[in-house]
Amino acid sequence: MAMGLFRVCLVVVTAIINHPLLFPRENATVPENEEEIIRKMQAHQEKLQLEQLRLEEEVARLAAEKEALEQVAEEGRQQNETRVAWDLWSTLCMILFLMIEVWRQDHQEGPSPECLGGEEDELPGLGGAPLQGLTLPNKATLGHFYERCIRGATADAARTREFLEGFVDDLLEALRSLCNRDTDMEVEDFIGVDSMYENWQVDRPLLCHLFVPFTPPEPYRFHPELWCSGRSVPLDRQGYGQIKVVRADGDTLSCICGKTKLGEDMLCLLHGRNSMAPPCGDMENLLCATDSLYLDTMQVMKWFQTALTRAWKGIAHKYEFDLAFGQLDSPGSLKIKFRSGKFMPFNLIPVIQCDDSDLYFVSHLPREPSEGTPASSTDWLLSFAVYERHFLRTTLKALPEGACHLSCLQIASFLLSKQSRLTGPSGLSSYHLKTALLHLLLLRQAADWKAGQLDARLHELLCFLEKSLLEKKLHHFFIGNRKVPEAMGLPEAVLRAEPLNLFRPFVLQRSLYRKTLDSFYEMLKNAPALISEYSLHVPSDQPTPKS
Question: To which H or E segment does residue 165 belong?
Answer without folding.
Answer: helix 151-178
